[in-house]
Design a protein that fits this description.
Blueprint lengths: L9 E5 L4 H12 L3 E6 L7 E4 L2 E6 L2 H8 L3 E4 L3 H14 L3 E4 L6 H14 L2 E3 L5 E4 L3 E4 L8 E8 L2 H10 L5 E6 L10 H10 L5 E7 L4 H12 L4 E6 L23 H10 L3 E3 L2 H20 L1
Parallel strand pairs: 1-2, 1-5, 2-4, 5-6, 6-7, 10-11, 10-12, 12-13, 13-14
Antiparallel strand pairs: 3-4, 8-9, 8-11
Helix pairs in contact: 3-4, 5-9, 6-7, 7-8
Length: about 300
């Protein structure tokens, strides 16, 4: 099983014919993703050859869906065009829009997130690495060769830390890894992913990666306390961030005691979540918890 993305997903790439779109479309195809088309109004009707597969280019998302049955789009367009790209995809009825683009103005993100919600389109991102269901499909820029299918679900604000935990826990493997992005406004939250992993019968444990700034992790802690029965292990980036210094993602803004790593750690631990001090320690906590669950199941 998986959340949001499976081997049945049919993927369009908005911006496929650009440099980043071409590079990552090739990598997605190599990972087994069913990329069924690109979208570029100026190059509609052409095909692009990726090794042993020719991918057609459509003039619009609506045309791509009509021709291929696509239900996912990955957005690689420049920041100035991201709002229009997501709006077009939502209008066309796409189920999932994965927005890789960084540097999108916050007011644009607010607008397209709200509009997509009215159309029933889930947005992941912006400024995110996308998501991967190992062995099935990869929508975005997450390396596909650093882990394998397994029973851990992962939701993360940080792309780099997503990759590190995937690698550290590669012997166990993952159901789905979701990079939700680190901007102040994102389309899919920790809570959305926690709810989906809770409902996924193949996910046995969830790893939650957060960072300083905002209150998303505190809200996730409250959700875990009230709704999640599966074990959750977390890591919060930013314990050593200098006070008063803007660090990393645009959402990593700390005001006074609000949004600090310590405050997030305390909220999560109060909800029964084990929190690692480093990514490696977090991986050890996951392994220890899975082992204790196995022993308990044996009796």
């Amino acid at each position: 099983m998986a959340i949001f993305l499976t081997k049945e997903s049919k993927v369009l790439v908005q911006g496929m014919t650009g440099g980043e779109g071409m590079k990552h479309t090739r990598r997605m195809l190599a990972a087994g993703t069913d990329v069924v088309g690109g979208v570029n109004p100026r190059k509609a009707g052409r095909t692009v050859d990726f090794d042993d597969r020719a991918v057609p280019v459509f003039g619009s998302v609506r045309e791509g869906i009509a021709a291929t049955g696509a239900d996912v789009t990955v957005v690689f367009v420049p920041p100035a065009f991201a709002k229009a790209a997501v709006t077009e995809a939502a209008d066309a009825g796409i189920g999932l829009a994965v927005v890789i683009t960084e540097g999108i103005p916050v007011h644009d993100s607010v607008a397209f997130r709200a509009y997509a919600a009215t159309k029933g389109t889930r947005v992941i991102g912006p400024n995110c690495p996308g998501l991967i269901t190992p062995g099935q499909s990869n929508a975005g820029i997450i390396p596909a060769d650093i882990t394998k299918p397994g029973r851990i679900g992962l939701v993360s604000k940080s792309g780099t830390l997503t990759y590190q935990l995937m690698y550290e826990l590669r012997d166990i493997g993952f159901s789905t890894c979701v990079g939700i992005g680190g901007d102040p406004v994102v389309g899919t939250s920790h809570i959305d992913c926690l709810a989906a992993f809770q409902d996924d019968p193949e996910t046995e444990l969830v790893v939650l990666i957060g960072e300083i700034g905002g209150d998303a992790e505190e809200r996730a802690a409250a959700y875990v306390r009230d709704h999640v029965t599966k074990p959750v292990v977390a890591y919060i980036a930013g314990f050593t961030a200098p006070e008063g210094r803007t660090m990393g993602h645009a959402g990593a803004i700390v005001s006074g005691s609000s949004g600090t790593a310590q405050a997030k750690k305390e909220a999560l631990e109060a909800a029964g979540v084990r929190v690692g001090g480093t990514p490696t320690e977090t991986a050890r906590l996951v392994l220890n918890r899975l082992e204790s669950e196995r022993v308990a199941a044996q009796g």
